[in-house]
Amino acid sequence: MKKQRAFLKWAGGKYELVDTIRRYLPEGDQLIEPFVGAGSVFLNTHYKSYILADINHDLIALFNLLKSSPDQFINDLKLLFTHQNNQSDAFYQLRDVFNHSKDQYIRSLLFVYLNRHGYNGLCRYNNSGFFNVPFGRYKTIYFPEKELYFFAKKAQNAQFICAPYYEVMKKAKQNSVIYCDPPYLSAGDSAGFTAYYSNNFGFEEHKKLSQLAENIAYQNDIPVLVSNHDTSYTRSLYRKARHLYRAEMRRSISCAGEGRKKIDEILALYQKS
Predict the structure, then answer these.
(1) Which positions ≥6 away from 62 have C-beta within 8 Å?
(2) Distance (Å, rounded) from C-alpha 96 to C-alpha 91?
(3) Superfamily for 67-146?
(4) CB atoms inside a 10 Å sphere around CB 211
(5) How much is the pLDDT for 101?
(6) CA 2 to chain centre
(7) How far apart are CA 60 and CA 92, in angstroms?
(8) What is the distance between the alpha carbons of residues 94 and 86, in angstroms, rounded to a whole number?
(9) What confidence tens digit (pLDDT) does each residue in 240-254 have?
């Protein structure tokens, strides 16, 4: 089966790992993703319905707009992908428009523009809530029209919500399956600090997530699959999972790709039986 790429670039995206994730995801009627990101797992699985969530309001608003008005949205978006807009002055002007606009439609268009033209597909906001990723300096920019239409079509079976993971996971019913892809703990990070959108996702949040996964799986009989770096800490964190699977994934750590290396990842499956 040919893998489908997301229309957004996404640091930590699961496109490279999606075959492995699919192998270990249990069957069910509905997939719930509390950390949907760009949606690679959603795009490459075949559940009857989906609940897809993130705490990034811009991301969820974009997905809902694309779901409801794909033709108009894609046609309007295409107007931003010009040679003139692939220059630093234009990028910073449009980034400024995004940061000061209250119009969600304009913000959603510019979110995709900034994502494809910004450095390494990063999504980062400062303490004031302003998007602050620098210009990416790409020679050419790909307009992901095919990927946008594929997402919009598949989104008809999905509900997109902006909410924290613990609220989203509690929406699971019988025949639901949950896949969690939280902001990873850095392998060399002794502080356990991971910045994500406007929140911090550190050791305590990872601990709460593992406990919630355990409760939902063993008390409610709803399977939960969680991914993270494979470290001694995460193996200890997920020690109550029914299965721990190891996977190798190529991770992008540079703009041009010279610094790419393979690092081990872990998939913890909490399942009653």
Answers:
(1) 108, 111, 112
(2) 9
(3) Adenine-specific Methyltransferase, Domain 2 (1.10.1020.10)
(4) 12
(5) 98
(6) 20
(7) 23
(8) 11
(9) 999 999 987 655 444
Does the domain at residues 18-55+163-270 carry the CATH identifier 3.10.310.30?
Answer: no
Cβ distance 172 to 31 under 8 Å? Answer: no
Q: Which residues face 50 on adjacent strands?
A: 31, 158
CA angle at 54 for the pair 158 and 155, rounded to the nearest 5°: 20
Q: Which of 6-20, 49-63, 183-197 has the highest mean pLDDT?
A: 49-63
Residue written as token pair 């399942």:
271
Do residues 239 and 268 make contact, with C-beta atoms less than 8 angstroms apart?
no
Specify the residue for token string 């428009």. Answer: 97
The token duo for 262 is: 């393979």
Give the CA distances from residue 229 to residues 67, 169, 179, 211, 248, in Å, rounded to whole numbers and listed in that order.
32, 21, 15, 18, 10
Domain boundaries, the chain: 18-55+163-270, 67-146
> Residue 38 in contact with residue 8, Cβ under 8 Å?
yes
The backbone torsions φ and ψ at residue 170, rounded to the nearest 5 degrees and listed phi first, read -75, -10
Q: What is the pLDDT of residue 193?
A: 41
C-alpha–C-alpha distance, residues 131 and 114, integer Å: 9
Average pLDDT, the chain: 91
Per-residue tokens: 259: 């610094």
Q: How far apart are CA 203 and CA 68, in angstroms?
A: 38
